[in-house]
Amino acid sequence: MDPTEQQPPAALRDVISRQGVVLGQSVHRLAGLEAASQSLHQEIAQLASQVEKLTLALSPSPGPSGASAAVAAAAPPPASFPAEPPAPPAPASSRDLSKIYYVMGLLRDQALAWALAFDSTTPLTSLTFKQFTDELSTVFDHPDHVGDASKRLLKLRQGSRSAAEFSVEFRTLAADTKWNDEALKGVYYQALTEALKDGLSVSDEAKDLNSLITMSIRLDNRLRERRRERSGQSASALPRLFQPAVERSSATPVFPPAQSPAPAPPDDEPMQIGRTHLTATERQRRLQTGDCLYCGKPGHRISSCPVRPKDKAH
């Protein structure tokens, strides 16, 4: 199966468009060569005519004598013929055409569509490379490119980025402005973080923008390295009591404080059946062991319990 049949419609249209551009370039090259050949033939014909005239003018002729000389002297001068019209302007050179076709091969999307439409109305063989680039700039160049870059530069701030990353964007926007070095220095300084401003305030003043950027990058690198060192020391110096709960639980299990057992009742406090009833399990245990059902002590029965009040009935 042909590989082009498996391509999606968009990709196929792109391939056909590229082939059309290449074919159009070939046609324009042939037309340019043909026009150059015709112009060369015209120039050769003009040179041949001029050489023939010069040959006739320089060829020796017998001088007139006697009456012939007098007649020749009295004869009016020969009529002058108007000069030949200037030759039409030569078409664009092959070098300009090659540059134009190379630039067209690099265009995409809207730029490529414009170039094809422009070629259909204005033959590229009649343009120089400068004329083509001027037309391209007229259509696609931003009319207020400098003003837009100036506004973006004034709003630019370093933020959380490093000074090196911030400087790249600053230089990119500064290249599109027409500000002098002093103005760029002031804008760059105001866009830095407060920490960098404090560090630069104790240093010698930079003589130009490049020096200020270099100093800012060095200072920012030192500050960031120092923050990393402090964060590492703080994490290792924390006591285990103040470490995060996740780390503490994974290292040593923490148990709730043990509660002290409730104090046992004194041995001499009797079990008052009238107020506190024995459970079925406790009553069964005392019957099996022979302990007193009133005070729970062995060696006697409830009827002879020494701590049981005497006025209680059996």
Uncertain residue ranges: 63-71, 246-251, 264-275
Largest sheet geometry:
none
Helix/strand class: mainly alpha
Number of helices: 12
Rounded average pLDDT: 75
Oligomerization: single chain
Coarse morphology: elongated
Radius of gyration: 55 Å
Tally of strands: 0
Q: What distance lies between the first and last C-alpha atoms, to the nearest angstrom?
A: 113 Å
Approximate helicity band:
55-70%
Number of domains: 3
**N-to-C SSE series?**
HHHHHHHHHHHH
Strand content: under 5%
Region (Disordered): 59-92, 248-284
Keywords: Coiled coil, Metal-binding, Zinc, Zinc-finger
Domain CCHC-type: 292-306
GO molecular function, one term: nucleic acid binding
What does this entry look like structurally?
- This is CCHC-type domain-containing protein.
- Residues 292-306 form the CCHC-type domain.
- Residues 59-92, 248-284 are annotated as: Disordered.
- The chain is mainly alpha-helical.
- It folds into three domains: 9-54 and 90-141, no CATH class; 145-235; 271-314, no CATH class.
- The chain has twelve helices and no strands.
- It has helices spanning 9-58, 67-74, 94-106, 109-121, 129-140, 145-155, 163-174, 181-191, 194-201, 209-237, 245-251, 280-289.
- Helix 1 packs antiparallel against helix 3 (94-106).
- The protein is elongated and about 180 Å long.
- Residues 63-71, 246-251 and 264-275 have low confidence and may be disordered.
Secondary structure topology:
Layout lengths: L8 H50 L8 H8 L19 H13 L2 H13 L7 H12 L4 H11 L7 H12 L6 H11 L2 H8 L7 H29 L7 H7 L28 H10 L25
